[in-house]
Design brief:
six-stranded mixed β-sheet; binds molybdate ion; molybdenum cofactor biosynthesis; molybdopterin molybdotransferase activity; alpha/beta; Molybdenum Cofactor Biosythetic Enzyme, Chain A; elongated; 7 helices; MoeA_C_domain_IV_sf; molybdenum; transferase; binds ligand LQZAQKY5
């Protein structure tokens, strides 16, 4: 059976997205992590006027060429309350950090290099070059300059910059809504008492965390039991929540109780692809259900999460207008810590432990057991070691690439 390569699968998922979700205005205090919908221009110049970077005296540098120089202090300039007037020859203004530079002053002498005299004069003991400790108008940015680009996920520094640009609220993309449906007769919710042959559903919560981290909003639609009628019931409820993406967990494989594809086909699913050359995550399904992007993730917890990292998170980023979405999760270089056998036809994402090494690339060591049901290993892992399809056997010390779980989780 020919399996679709991972890169082709990502390209197909992204090609099936119609365009970014609509934008909304959000107050700055709630913008952390949100995606900017439009390029943002500065509403003002910063600093709007020349200011002092230090506490001291504003002077004309030429008056201090010969030191010590004695100047007459004619007033004070404080932040928010500048000195109105000019400085003449032989004059100085007491000044504080952030205060406007008086006209004709062209340098600051820090107060440690001065001595205030009793008669209202000041002795200057260091000759300042022109412009010393002066922040000229526009040092940071000029009005009209585009400082933040559309598609960017706003971090703390971006938010400070947007505030300084005088934006009280920002145009950001609405959070893409992702409806999650778990499937399986064996599942109970955490905290419930599992019956005979039952286990606790874990995927819903992991997926919700990955969705939130990618910038989306997770909608938990509960568990569908393994009947067509129940899958349809939960899918109807999920569609009523008006998601941008619908995901199912489990029921993606070939077993008699794997009903998802068959059931959704009955209500108009246009299947894009099913089964990809990846481990874990082979049975991934993709399609459109009445305009809604559909991803059917495998039930094994690690498989579901790896599919979410590689396909769902980039789909959310694409809906947020992120120009980097097609690149998928960022890959980093490392050095292999152990010998590995040759790989088969599936691109492998191995749970691994990354150890920093002083002065060199980190060492990455995959766990010996890579069963896609094992959450203990996943919690101990901090990396996914990537192995290309048909990679030949590899020796410890060779260069490899990995995904950093802290980037995604
Ligand atoms: N004959 C074959 N069998 C299987 C194949 C195959 O190609 N031929 N593929 C295997 C692979 S690879 C995977 S991955 C799994 C995926 O199976 P499904 O997507 O159909 O998932 P289920 O059978 O429903 O569940 C698999 C496993 O995961 C547990 N599960 C399901 N949902 C959750 C949840 N929300 N939280 C925690 N655990 C969950 C479920 O109990 C099963 O143990 O198929 C292989 N089989
Ligand atoms: O691909 Mo399954 O996802 O090997 O466990």
């Amino acid at each position: 059976m020919a399996l679709l390569p991972v890169a082709d699968a990502l390209a197909q998922v992204l090609a099936s997205i119609d365009g970014p979700v609509p934008e909304e205005m959000v107050p700055l205090a709630a913008c952390h992590g949100r995606s900017l919908a439009r390029d943002l221009a500065a509403r003002r110049t910063q600093p709007p006027f020349a200011v002092s970077a230090m506490d001291g005296y504003a002077v004309r540098a030429a008056d201090c060429a010969t030191i010590p120089a004695t100047l007459t202090v004619i007033g004070e300039s404080a932040a928010g309350r500048g000195y109105r007037g000019d400085i003449g020859p032989g004059e100085a203004v007491r000044i504080f950090t952030g205060a406007p530079l008086p006209t004709s002053a062209d340098a600051i002498v820090i107060q440690e290099d001065t001595q205030a005299l009793d008669d209202g004069r000041v002795e200057i003991r260091e000759a300042p070059p022109v412009g010393h400790y002066v922040r000229p108008a526009g040092l940071d940015f000029a009005q009209g300059a585009i400082l933040l680009e559309a598609g960017r996920a706003l971090d703390a520094g971006d938010i400070a910059l947007a505030a300084a640009m005088n934006h009280a609220s920002l145009p950001v993309r609405r959070k893409p809504r992702v409806a999650i449906i778990a499937t399986g007769d064996e599942l109970v919710l955490p905290g419930e008492e599992p019956g005979p042959d039952q286990i606790v559903a874990s995927n819903i919560y992991a997926l919700a965390a990955i969705i939130t981290r990618a910038g989306g909003e997770a909608i938990d639609c509960g568990i569908a039991r393994d009947t067509r009628a129940d899958v349809l019931r939960v899918v109807d409820a999920a569609r009523a929540s008006e998601p941008d993406i619908l995901i199912t967990l489990g029921g993606a494989s070939v077993g008699a109780h794997d009903l998802v594809q068959e059931t959704l086909s009955g209500i108009g699913l246009e299947l894009g692809f099913w089964r990809i050359a990846m481990r874990p995550g082979k049975p991934l399904m993709h399609g459109k259900l009445g305009g809604l992007l559909f991803l059917g993730l495998p039930g094994n917890p690690v498989s579901a999460m790896v599919c979410a990292i590689l396909f769902l998170a980039p789909a959310i980023r694409a809906l947020l207008g992120d120009p980097l979405a097609p690149q998928g999760a960022p890959r980093h270089p490392a050095i292999l810590g152990i010998d590995l056998k040759a790989n088969d036809k599936r691109e492998d994402y191995m749970r691994a432990k990354l150890t920093p090494r002083p002065g060199g690339l980190p060492l990455v060591e995959p766990f010996a057991r890579q069963d896609s049901s094992m959450l203990g290993h996943l919690a101990r892992a901090n990396a996914l070691l990537i192995r290309a399809p048909f990679a030949p056997e590899a020796k410890a010390g060779e260069p490899v690439e990995y995904l950093r779980l802290a980037d995604i989780f």
